[in-house]
């Protein structure tokens, strides 16, 4: 006799679901990056004024240094013309133009620094104008005073050029007298070499004197480029 009791059905196993990958989130990803605290307009203005005042003092110091160099140049000229000629010290007379040219060259270098500082001051003026809305006119007033009091005033500048030419003429005469005992070819060689050196020194000083004003625009452009990079 067959067993007619049905077997209990076993429940079906649930289908396996694919494993889902758990996304790990960075805890600090949602936090904003820390921002640098920018100085306030008052702090920026104080910093600009500090740089501006430093440039002003540096310019005044350079111009006073130029005035001292002018006094040295006058002293060299007087010493050469009085002592060198009176006692027939031809070597001293021959070195006079070179000594004067060195002094003038140093003065030109200092005045080039003045123009470089002036270009930077012009940049600072524009930055201060952006903050305050007022245009400071310190640089224009300072230029007028410096040109009026400096050795670059036109009559004095012409006097320096004439003094240098006079020293060159006296120096050539002194070298001619020193080379008189030599043979003709060596005498001409000595005088020609000395004259060539004077011409070379004159050209070098003239080139520096002609192009030193360009340093104003160069310094201003460089300050603008660096200012944008830091801005």
Mind explaining what this structure looks like?
Keywords: Membrane, Transmembrane, Transmembrane helix. It is a single chain. This protein has 231 residues and is an all-alpha fold. It has one domain (42-230). It has helices at 41-86, 90-132, 138-149, 154-178, 184-211, 214-230. Helix 2 (90-132) packs parallel to helix 5, helix 2 (90-132) runs parallel beside helix 6 (214-230) and helix 4 (154-178) runs antiparallel to helix 5 (184-211). The model has no long low-confidence stretch (mean pLDDT 75).
Distance, first to last CA: 102 Å
**Sheet of most strands:** none
Integer tally of domains: 1
Portion in beta strands: under 5%
Helix-strand pattern = HHHHHH
Number of distinct beta strands: 0
Number of helices, where a helix is a run of at least 4 consecutive DSSP H or I residues = 6
Structural class: mainly alpha
Q: What is the mean pLDDT?
A: 75
